[in-house]
Amino acid sequence: MPVSLASADAASSALPFTAALALLPPGVLTGFAIVIGLVVGSFLNVVIHRLPIMLERAWRADAADALGHAEPSGELFADDGLPARYNLWLPRSACPHCGHVLRAWENIPLVSWLALRGRCSHCHARVSARYPAIEIASAACAAAALLAFGPSGKALAAFVLCASLIAMSAIDLEHQLLPDALTLPLVWAGLLVNLAETFTDLHAAVIGAVAGYLALWCVYWLFRLLRGVEGMGHGDFKLLAALGAWLGWSALPQIVVIAAVAGAIVGLVATASGRMRFEEPLPFGPYLAAGALVTLFAGTPLYAAFAWGI
Ligand SMILES: [Zn+2]
């Protein structure tokens, strides 16, 4: 059967999977994205809860090793009271209050939390609202990526960026830590994604990664020399490097301005309401993430406003 050149080109340029997805009605596709977003959100909750514990164990093991202390081996439980074998997959999720291992129906993203009214089915202790909040945020990002970029590899890449930013923001808010295990792979992923000019060209991505790191590195040293304090953590440099790699160097000024303004407003409100002391460090990761999400989905409206103003 003869095939027209145009349709052959379209078929070869689109991945078979995304081409098949494009045939689905938009409502079904959005529902699909929301379900995927909820499931990924559930996994992000595991990462947010477990990764800091895993890192702390690794640091303690390194410190013990450096000091020449023998590591206890063969024990079922570690110093933190959790099983010795502890990673993103093991042990199975359990209630932190009573240790009740969650059954499959208690582990359905969002649905289980709503059905159990935010309480453990065994001891009735409250389950943090952070769990459904992360799942909803992840589902919203999946739907937004689909609406903004259509059923494409670009939408999938955008969702990977959003999901990483959600996990990092939550860990930074709770532990004031942006783990290398998340920031560094995000730098490499940004460069790889832009090999195909997905969000920007490779030149802009490489310069963005370097400029993002150096910009905050300079701010850090300026603070340190002028005021003798550490204004931010090294994780912030790596996160901005990752954002430069994903969105290109030209996105960086807008991301930093949005982050600084949002951080200053939240900091002032929290200080004025007595929830925070003035000198207390504010985790900067969530604000950089907010700046990145605005830039990812809305482009660079600040530049347009500035150009219009002059
Ligand atoms: Zn319980």
Automatic annotation (TrEMBL):
The keyword GTP-binding does not apply. It holds the Pfam family A24_N_bact. Keywords: Cell inner membrane, Cell membrane, Hydrolase, Membrane, Methyltransferase, Multifunctional enzyme, Protease, S-adenosyl-L-methionine, Transferase, Transmembrane, Transmembrane helix. GO terms for molecular function: aspartic-type endopeptidase activity; methyltransferase activity. It catalyses: Typically cleaves a -Gly-|-Phe- bond to release an N-terminal, basic peptide of 5-8 residues from type IV prepilin, and then N-methylates the new N-terminal amino group, the methyl donor being S-adenosyl-L-methionine. Residues 159-268 form the Prepilin type IV endopeptidase peptidase domain. It is a multi-pass membrane protein. Its EC number is 2.1.1.-, 3.4.23.43. It comes from the Bacteria. InterPro entries: Peptidase_A24A_bac (IPR014032), Prepilin_IV_endopep_pep (IPR000045), Prepilin_pept_A24_N (IPR010627), Prepilin_peptidase/N-MTase (IPR050882). It is found in: Cell inner membrane; Cell membrane. The chain crosses the membrane at residues 20-48, 131-149, 202-223, 243-272, 284-308. Plays an essential role in type IV pili and type II pseudopili formation by proteolytically removing the leader sequence from substrate proteins and subsequently monomethylating the alpha-amino group of the newly exposed N-terminal phenylalanine. Belongs to the peptidase A24 family. This is Prepilin leader peptidase/N-methyltransferase. It comes from Paraburkholderia tropica.
